[in-house]
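Appendix C reproduces, verbatim, an entry submitted by the partner laboratory led by Prof. M.T., so that reviewers can inspect both the input and the predicted structure.
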Amino acid sequence: MKAAILEDIDRLVVREVEDYEVGKGEVLIRVKACAICGSDIRIMHHGNPRVKFPHIIGHEIAGVVVEVGEGVEKFEIGDRVAVGADVPCGKCFWCQNGMGTNCAINYAIGYQFPGGFAQYILLNSLSVEQGSVHKIPENLSFDEASLAEPLACAINGLEMANLEVGDTLCIIGAGPIGCMMIEMGRHMGATNIIVIQRSQLRLDLARKFNADHYFLSDRHVEEKVKEVTDGEGADVVMVTCASPEAQEQALLLARHRARINFFGGLPSGARNISISSNLIHYQECMVLGSHGSLPRHHQKALRVMEKGMVNPAEYITHRFPLEEIQEAFRVAESHEGLKVVVNP
């Protein structure tokens, strides 16, 4: 089969590799779509402790089951399935208590396990039993269903921030995740949604998702946010970009008792942030982080898209065959559009 192999930092090569052999409890999927995530870009440029070269990355996946191993009862040949990243071990304290994103082992598709930038992906028995693998609703295409993974992460982040009906939601970073949070935030009850982005192009792309206010990130943004929140600031601030400056800025945009979520992970080598802890202390703010999602979030994401609450087609701006994956990564990194999908 053909696969895009990350041989080393900044060396992604499409070549023939050995076909998978399906063992007991395993499922072989013909990959139809694998979208590019910001974390894929970080892995390519900076590596990751869980990724050992050479490796197949990619974890926003949709495809069709073509073979099932002995003992598999969840899936049959011909099932259309979407696959998310995180695979809870199911045995540690965190997994046993429903918090698999904090799994002691922290397995994930495209990290320890081979990913979806290939013609086929083999799900091992743990991924089949514990991972985010769900059947695709009939009204969703493979490309659309691949976005269940990032939407699941957005849902997890907003749940962690305890977004409530009537809240003001401020989103720093108008990439795909930020735009998904506009739509999900509205459905979860946010009545005033503010989007902040440093580039005009991305800010303009995000306007179709109908937030209440769109601001460029500049030295006047704190004043602008206060103007549209009666001088208070936001109840929830989601930092969806990988920026120390944005994390520092978030505290200045938050009202008393706000929940601030550092959703976007920083690349290795990024500087430590510098904040005044008095802002947290005297305003009684809650600063938290979230990453990844649980299988229940992935299933929720598919249901949300099935019902049209989030339209995944609105996010897909570019498609590339596997042979052009280097160009696909370039476009994704350039922020020329929103989601870039690779079709192996």
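The chain has two domains: 2-149+293-343, 162-289. Additional entries are available on request from the coordinating office.
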